[in-house]
Amino acid sequence: MSPVKAGACLLVLGTLSPTGFGQAFMPAPGPAVALETCVGAERYQLNAGSDSVVLDDADRDGVQAALLERYPAFGRDGSAVSAIVLWRKPDVGWVYLALKTHPDKPGKVCSAASFSAGVFGFSAELQRKYFLGTRS
Predict the structure, then answer these.
(1) Residue 84: enclosing H or E segment and its boundaries?
(2) What SS3 string covers 13-54?
(3) What is the pTM of this model?
(4) Is the separation of the CB atoms in 21 and 30 below 8 Å?
(5) 113 vs 65, 74, 132, CA distance in Å?
(6) Each residue's pLDDT tens digit, 116-132
(7) CB of 117 within 8 A of CB of 96?
(8) Please, which pLDDT band fits residue 29 given cuts at 50, 70 and 90?
(9) Which of 47, 54, 102, 119 is deepest in the core (most CB within 10 A)?
């Protein structure tokens, strides 16, 4: 199974075009998105561009490597991460959502896991990059 690119995830989620979110320098606020979890019935309400963004490929790869180093059990199921979303979860704070192909809905993605962004030193830089428009 090949991983779904970040832009394709957005089209599946029905938010914005691939160039308007995640790959752009400063994402424009978009419509709210209800994102399912891969297991269970929980749904997350994300507001694309204002409280959440899909990381670009380079950032996704770096965050994924850090997640797997800190939480090796996460990678044991063998399924590929399609995208990683940086999200300011209400009443919780910044988290990373690892999106994977939905096991029961081909062509769609779901949140396989969430991780506190605060445990990673690089998170503040990613918040500035995607939400304040600064480049490192």
Answers:
(1) strand 83-89
(2) HCCCCCCCCCCCCCCCCCCEEEEEECCCCCEEEEEECCCEEE
(3) 0.76
(4) yes
(5) 15, 8, 26
(6) 999 999 999 999 999 98
(7) yes
(8) low
(9) 54
